[in-house]
Amino acid sequence: MRLYLLARNPTDSVTDGFLPAARRLGLDVTVLTDQPGAHRRRAPEPETLGCDVRDFRAVIGRISAHRRPDAVFTNSDHLQTQAALAADYFGLPAKSWRAAHATKDKAEMRRRLAAAGADPVRAAELPPGADPAALDVPYPCVVKPREGVASEDVVLAADPAELVRRVAEIRARRPGEALVVEEFLEGELYTLETLGDGRVRHLLGGFHTELSPPPHFVEERMSYVPAHPAPVTAQVLGQLDALGVGFGACHTEFTVSAGRARVVEVNYRAIGDQCDLLLARLLGIPLFAHILRTHLGEPLPADLGAHTDGRARLSYPCARTAGTLTAAPGPADLVVDGVELAYRPLRAVGERHGLHRTNRDFLGVARGIGTDQRRVDRVVADFLAAQRWEITP
């Protein structure tokens, strides 16, 4: 059976999660990507073909001229609609392209939720060149790219003057892109991870996310939450239903304040930044294989057999300045006080980077798994405190 996997830049989710799972399932994998060289260097085994994966017509043509597909899949934020359209063209199991589009386009997501009466958020779309000072929005507000990812150019504005300034800064980096300005959602930030086959939907728990200080929203630490309160989960699932989300993996971010759950964004894919690798290990299930099986048309089991007694934490040491990384710890796998701890560098010594205020500033990731949250938190914090990163301007 042949799996076409659409991708842009290489990610840990694909290289360390989906490709090994596909091998274990005995699938022949063809990677379609607009960055074939980078993928061949990172994972030389699968067949890799160049393709303008942002264009669903190019994807369909490349597949049609190659070999018959049994599944078309992507874990990329940027490519969900293209993969859904291509899979549907070949008569294969797929996410609804309408749902994929509605979750990727943040303005459309707000319109769809408002039309359904599913906890509407005051928001306005800002086309290129439009004057942000003319918007009727509450303050503080959040401005973000309409189709952005990973908190890139997502920033808080306290008043109209700051909104005008922030929009100008983003437009200088993203000329011609539409933006969204919406009310700031108060409360703690959480995620809900789901996996469905269009018939059943499994809840995989979620994470409590700790962010950098405003005005930016960099995810610095995440603690696993086995289950959110039932009323909170029901509110989030109701909003996903309004968007038509229910097939494959989905990573939903939401705030909770006084018991009210409000969706920040819906990423119609598995959670990234190595949280998915941790989740598979923590739950003790073949998570990546389950996701691929749904796209092959196989039903999910009624019970995934997931362990629910584990606790986990991820911490991301971040660069605070631009420059060249001149000293950093290497990878580590340890067991400390009963806690499994893994550290992986995300930036190589000698690399020079700007300061992005996003997950592109991550220097590494420390993952801790155990049975007691306080112990897991302590072990991860102690490990990171003993390490040293140096950045030379």
Task: Please outline what is shown here.
With 393 residues, the chain is an alpha+beta fold. The protein has helices at residues 12-24, 36-42, 56-64, 80-89, 97-104, 106-115, 160-173, 230-243, 275-283, 287-295, 373-385, and strands at residues 2-7, 28-33, 47-50, 71-74, 123-126, 141-145, 155-157, 179-183, 188-197, 201-203, 206-211, 219-225, 247-257, 260-267, 311-315, 323-327, 332-336, 339-345, 352-353, 364-370, 390-392.
End-to-end distance: 50 Å
Q: What fold name goes in the CATH topology slot of the largest domain?
A: D-amino Acid Aminotransferase, Chain A, domain 1
Taken from the alpha-carbon principal axes, the silhouette is globular
- SS field, number of helical segments: 11
- What's the CATH H-level superfamily name of the largest domain? ATP-grasp fold, B domain
- The CATH C-level class name of the largest domain: Alpha Beta
| Mean of all residue-level pLDDT scores | 96
Helix residue percentage: 25-40%
